[in-house]
Amino acid sequence: MKALIFPAGSPDRLAPMTQWMPEALLPIANKPMVAHLLELLARSDVRQAVMAVHHMPYETESYFGRGERWGLDISYCLLKQAGNLSKVLKRAWSQIQDDVMILPANTITDLSLSALAQIHAQSQTDLTLSMVRSKAQKDKVVALTDEMPGSGALLGTAVLSVDGAMLAMAEPSIMDMTGLARQFREHGRSSVVYHTDFTMKTIESPGDYLAANQLALRGAFNGLILPGEEVRTGIRAGIGARIHPQCKLVGPASLGNSCGLSRDAVIGPDAVIGEKVVVDRGAVVENSVIFPNTYVGSHTEVQNSVIWKKSMFNVKRGVEVYVEDDIILGDMDKPFLANQLDRAFNLATGLFFTLCAFPLWGVCFLYHLVFPGKAFFQTEIRYGKYEVSNLQGAVQPRPFVHYTFQSRHWWIRKLPGLFNVIKGEMSMVGNAPLSSEQLDLLDEEWQTLRAKAPVGLFHLWEAEGQPNPSWDEQLVSEAYYAGSRTMWGDVGILLKCLMPKKRA
User: Is 302 in contact with 285 (CB distance < 8 Å)?
Assistant: First the structure.
């Protein structure tokens, strides 16, 4: 028997969290959601799994790999869209070719999969469904024709025989477990429902996501393995977690690896602090999840929210806010020192070349006086550095006044741009500042790529001996530069631009 883990719906239902990371990697008590399912499979001795991926598939596959960490053999199939069980089965069937256990990826459960597999083998049916029974009932197995689960029934994992899978693939209207049960009953195929006592939480909204974390922290799922070591009652801390003696911890709470909790901070109840998160002095985190590499500023109060770096989503109110002020929320991945060194390098280089060109400034000034009718010195509105434009964190390029000289010599044309560098509007090396017409030509994907690099006075394509590339060639060059930029690489580009073999 093999397992099929599939996305049960559009990632938009869990926005904005699914804009930050893959749905499969959303942390439940500091462990990716699907990792809990993989551990459940391993405990149930189901060793082969096919993972159908749709949202951020490459990041998902990169994290889970071939499944060696869990003692599993994982293969992948890529979906064009999520939310249709029949199409998922059809897409993945070449990798299954066996009885298949179906697990929605957005589910946390403690159902005994080995017991379900045993019921399926004993009943020899085409479909075996699991269903949560009431506490007063006993475990039982009933024919599906005797009891059709309603739309509100808590249906868990299902097992299909090969023949059952063939029927499911032939019915494109099957979207989920309820649709699967309905189709099998209508076709009169042998099916049973296994009523047993288990806990299950399906995550269909941000509210469900917070609730699933709360249930996991409070031990609602039997056998669920939570990371870290219990340092106090209800408090689990990962490796390298730094907790100030005067930090107040209220269980339950999960503290990730290498996190830092400062003096007078209040953590919990129902708080998940991710890896390398820093919670500063006097901050309060309650019934919230703080994603990894986030800074929570001094005396910041976080309740009923999910936070990733500088973005806060209040689940109770359904409001997302991008916090520009690093004092309130910050990005621990932000290369602050590297940015300061980069700025110092550009300022020093800009001042140096401005002073070296001092005699040329005098010549240009005299030329302007002798020929005042010629527009030698020019200013243009260009678009450069990207900045946050709204509370949702969307970025737009900022307009600035770009200085140039009108000349057929490239080095004279660029000379006034040194003042843009000194003012911090440009770097010595970067992508080209855009006109409003060029900005209109860029789609969102190219703008996202450009936002990773500054605008500059000198460009990669100039260093490669292409002073006048086509628009498409420029975009490709800028995308490559943005993805591979380093400060030493900028130094190399600058030297090549200043010492070219031939310049138009």
Answer: yes
